[in-house]
Amino acid sequence: MNRSRPLPSVGLTVFVVLILGSTSCTPNARKQRYYSSGQRYFAKEKYREAAIQFQNATQVDPRFAEAHFQLAQCFLKLGMWTGAYTELSRTIDLAPRNWKAHTDLGNLLLVGHEFDKARKEVELVLRESPDNADAHALLANLYAATGNREQSLQEMQKAVQLGPENSALHVNLALLEANSGAFPSAEEHFKKAAALEPQSALPAVALGNLYGQQRRFAEAEQQFMHAIALEPKNSQPRVALAHLYVFQNQKDKAEQVLKDTRKNLNDNPDGYRLLAEFYLASGDMDKALAEYASLTQEHPKDLRTKKNYAQLLIQRGQIDQASKLDSEVLKENPGDLDAQVQQGQILLRQGRTNDALQSLQASLKKQPDNAQAHYYLGLAFSQAGNPRQAETEWREAVRIRPNLTEAQTALALVALSKRDANQLAQSAETIMKAQPSSSQGYVFHALANEMRNNMPGAEADLKKAIEVAPQNPIGYIRMADLRAAAQGKLGEAEKLYEQALQLDPSAAEALLGLVRLYNFQKQPARALERVRVQIAKAPGGYYYFLLGQLLLRQGDLEKAEEAMQMATQLDKNNADAFLLLGQVQVARGSQEKAMTSFQRSIQENSRDPRSYVMFGALAEKRGDWKSAKEAYEKALQVEPDYPLAANNLAYLMLEHGGNSDVAFSLAQVALRGLPDLANAQDTLAWAYYQKHQYASAIRLLEEALKKTPQTTAYHYHLGLAYQKAGDRVNARKHLDLVLQLNPGFAHADEVRKALAELGGS
């Protein structure tokens, strides 16, 4: 019997093991295991790995507030603001008294310029926790953002008093003091922050920036070097040092710093991308392309670098290569919204407007607050001939991201076309704030001031544009425009245009300004010679186009044709050059050459309806009704309401057979688009005639003849309309005029027949 006693203990052991094993597999245990793993990764500053673990924890238990909060902290560290916002909001829903979540959310709202919402968060925290130092810091920054410096400093000093050992609070106070010009006090607090966290690079970088602001460059350099030594794997001190060198116009040193960064931080995307970004910001596109190409080869799994490279290729017009990269990203991650937006851009550049519209709209269904997608969707609508919807999308883009300068620029151009000075000034001010070292915002602001007849304000804006970007010709060009048009200072204007061309020999607007200046002074020969001189320096397509226009004005058709041929060879996207070339060739009696030019224009500029219309008009003149009809129809496929195509197609159908109802509708489209064009009035009148609405036809034809009283065809149509209306006197009057004006009129036999019916001779 004694031998059997151990058996139950063995069973008990197995039972205990089973219980323990099953406990470790419970949802609570799994979520805690993920959470603990996330904390360990976070402590090692491996924020992406930590985020994955915290996400796993929230999937096990969606109401795990602390995991949502820690996931938000990861997103904040990674700069993923949308994710951080979502997770902080979820944290607050689950744990309303998590004051740190409230202050973090308030800081995000502050950065997004949602000041009222940020204030609600901070007021809630301070109401429940009045000694919360982070909340006082948030309130201080809120005051600073809304222009209340005095209260900002008071709140920040209170925050430091409540958290005297918090290095970040001292840094924050110092930054506010520096912005107020209190440099000695700011320096003291930066040094205090460094003493509290001697191994942290942040205070050293902040102090270095302060020294740089005071032009104490040697001391700034020393602080940045110290910060790099403290945190060799932190990219920020290296960025600050590079910026310091750029500010001192020591670009070679800046480039070397970033080359070292690329080498030493080759395992850190935020480090190894910096050199490419530097080349991009410096405008050295060739080096930027080469660097991104190299990075893509070295880090094929880095999708962000691949997307950056694709974006640069799109900007450079290398669409096929960009499309290949974008496809690689989408193959790796089909849900990548940035890549989907890039796909929309590529489709736009390929002229596939409808496909681009569908692609971008699909992206926005998944992420309605993607400002870039709204911006490019606006471009797609604009390309599709829908300016109203384009403007709506751009407004939505800036609502989501007020500092999205591309969308603000698009809105500024819309405002410029509408001569809306207020909207133009508003967009300009946003651009100026977002890009203070760019001339674009100041130039737009100057144009708004010109609209308001505030010439001193416009001049001040343009001086600022030149000051912040002295190597950019646009400031000089706009100042020259102001001097010439508004102030009549033609000599100064000429010097400014020349200065712009010295900075950039390809600055077409500057050369165009000089040409206009010389033409205004009745010096066409000087204008012609100046264009030839510039072509020798920068033989671009637009300059040959300008040369051709000047030669055409002088009546030299042969040389004008030669210039236009060069223009179209050098710039295949200049539809104006193709069209003018064709017109010159027609004037020289070379219809075959003109047809070829219009065909080339269609091939190279398939989204320009004018090329189809010009080809169709020439085909119609040659009696090729079928080719003319096809050309007009293609023009209307590109731009459904294009009035010239609608007018010509309508008349062709009325004259040579076609659906009269369709022709009538097209004629209405034409007259809507060109209400003062006599030809459009005649076309619609002829459509009314064929629908037996003679009174309407007569009214339109009388209007057309007021504009061009010698046009035989209008008298012919009006005479027939009066005949059908029973007005024999007026019918005979206009039909007689047809034969007087043009005895060889194509329909002379029909005129004589009608006169015979009226009793004429």
Secondary structure elements and their pairing?
Blueprint: H1 6-24, H2 27-43, H3 47-60, H4 65-78, H5 81-94, H6 99-111, H7 115-128, H8 133-145, H9 149-162, H10 167-179, H11 183-196, H12 201-213, H13 217-230, H14 235-247, H15 251-264, H16 269-272, H17 274-282, H18 285-298, H19 303-315, H20 319-332, H21 337-349, H22 353-366, H23 371-383, H24 387-400, H25 405-418, H26 421-434, H27 440-451, H28 455-468, H29 473-486, H30 490-503, H31 508-520, H32 524-537, H33 541-553, H34 557-570, H35 575-587, H36 591-604, H37 609-621, H38 625-638, H39 643-656, H40 660-673, H41 678-690, H42 694-707, H43 712-725, H44 728-741, H45 748-758
Helix pairs in contact: 2-3, 3-4, 4-5, 5-6, 6-7, 6-8, 7-8, 8-9, 8-10, 9-10, 10-11, 10-12, 11-12, 12-13, 12-14, 13-14, 14-15, 17-18, 18-19, 19-20, 19-21, 20-21, 21-22, 21-23, 22-23, 23-24, 24-25, 25-26, 26-27, 27-28, 28-29, 29-30, 29-31, 30-31, 31-32, 32-33, 33-34, 33-35, 34-35, 35-36, ...
Q: Could you describe the largest sheet, including whether it forms a barrel?
A: none
Question: Uncertain regions: pLDDT < 50 for 5+ in a row?
Answer: 1-24
Average per-residue pLDDT, rounded, comes to 90
Number of strands: 0
Count of helices? 45
Could you say which structural class the secondary elements and strand pairing correspond to? Answer: mainly alpha
